[in-house]
Amino acid sequence: MIKYLPVYTLFLMFVLCTSCGGQNKTDLPKDSIKSEPKSVITSAGPEWITRNIIKDRKGNIWIAAFDGIFWYDGKSFTNITSKVSRARFFSVLEDRKGNFWFGSIGSGVYRYDGKSFRNFTTKEGLAGNGVTCIYEDKTGNIWFGTEGGASRYDGKSFRNYTMKGGLPSNDVNAIIEDKTGKLWFGTRGNVCVYDGKTFTVFTHEDKPFKNVRSIIEDKKGKIWLGGPDGLWCYDGGIFTNFTQKFVGYIMEDKKGNIWTSSERDNSQAWALSRYDGKSLSDKKPTVAEITNKPMIFGILEDDEGSIWFGAVDGVYRYDGSTITGFNGKVLSNNF
Known about the structure:
The protein is mostly beta strands. Helix content is 0%, strand content 45%.
């Protein structure tokens, strides 16, 4: 049985203000900011709110946290942005060219090519400086979800999509492209689907899904939605609700299990939950709550099958039996 570590009192939340912006296309100036990286290697990972975790093509772990972007090579952590920016980082992506994109709260997005950084903000055409999600589509365009709308970057310029063009809300939480090439946007308003011309609000029984925080497409092509209305799955015809508790993040592992971060019953704590992939079609699928923290954010499966997740006090790894914290305060295998 997993023992739980007493919860730290450090708990900070943020609010992103919604602002309206028109649809536009802006060419980038040649003198956009560039900075040379000065990294700091450390034995510990982030100590503050950790929002997003990804794995690069080499199997290394990249972590977006409020105290920097951290890179983990299996042995040590490197704070990539410690001498570049004091921004609170929220999102991270590796694109097909090997560039890394770091979204921040208030400082726009940074592109890192392994040698230098380039900062893009509203001055360069980004829809908003609070970048909560980053996504690369099948053609190589990079999409940014901001508090001022969605931005598409084609490598040369930004094109912005806002409420003036049909987006339900300018505050964008999640973006994915499905197997048919349609884009899904989770906003603080409604979820919508974009076919390249029109935004269509996605509904169930004529009711929209509001303030969805996470959207994924699983290996079978089913769409999963997480937000205040709980966890939903859509297979193209049938909707299935798995929980009505608030769900903040969704991830599918190699075995087809669905992992979520969600509220717990009658508790202020959140749970890291695993929905057994083999029982998802059952009326009552098998669900295991692995741990609880004040909040749980991004979730990732690494090459060894361990599950990483972000919390208000750093990043944690679950190997199937043990949870390990990497925040410098607790390096424990017994909580």
